[in-house]
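#structure-requests
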Amino acid sequence: MLAGQPEEEDTDLGPGAAGGPFLPACNIFFRVGFVVAERVLYLSSAGYCLLLAYSVGHCCCRWSRYRKPLCVSVLALLCVYVARCALRSHQWRSEQSLFTSALTVCPLNAKVHYNVGKNLADRGNSTAAIAYYREAVSLHPTYVHAMNNLGNILKERNELIEAEHLLSKAVSIQPDFAAAWMNLGIVQNSLQRFEAAEKSYWNAIRFRKKYPDCYYNLGRLYADLNRNVDALNAWRNATVLKPDHSLAWNNMVILLDNTGNLGQAELIGREALRLLPNDHTIMFSLANVLGKSQKYKESEGFFLHALRINPNSASCHGNLAVLYHRWGKLELAKKHYEMSLQLDPEAPGTRDNYNMLRRKLDQLKHPTP
């Protein structure tokens, strides 16, 4: 079965990022409690420019002897603003530079540390991301989104106990946090705490009715417990809510294949490919089912189609070789065994099958008298 699908929270720009009229956000009439987004200031900045230009023109007309120093002052101010505008525009060239620049302005803002951590995690630098997520939680001990994302990274690093602690704390602070409930279920499943994992998944679904990824993970749990009917129902729910959920479709085909229900596996595989006609993983699984059903020609077609989409799949070359081996097309089997071993020399079973085929070919070329 395929791995669980965690869910991370997106970048948190805070309430100020939504923009809005300047006056309600200026802290004059009432306390706002957030940093004003830059685009909130555009209208007021335009008014400021008009007011300054009018004032300079008026002063130059009334006090002509101060015209030169006034113009020099305005020009200097303009140069400073141009330089600051250029610097800020440069900081907006990427998320990384934007969020990092915010650290110098708001070093004690938990959301800024969260955003830097999320950006680092998205770029694959999980070690640095952990440090920023931890700082965000330290600055804001009830920051559930930071706990959720930090718990996901720790889960991937197999630090399951701390991940479970963080995610449990997140859902205790915000009981309707569906993503954290699902991620907690994934961690508990990895710890083989199956009953607790099932409860966590159902809590996630209770708070988010249409949650295909959670149904997918619930199906994985049931499959681990050999509750095959429940697993199939969960994955079917995932595909009903999200018809292009490739992992759920593929796991249904694999489970039915593994339990010997080849006819039903074929029907599910064909249904999936009608919705996802270019999904090479489903083609691969359906081809395996058809091969076991001795529908060799059709199975070959799906294997070859999958290889056209993903030509460097060692497992696809290996299973196609097994199909040709059973079919009696030994030279083609030899070719694809060799391609599979070239892509993955440690492919399970492929080396043994290849050696068996070579012995058979040698016997055919040099039959014993």
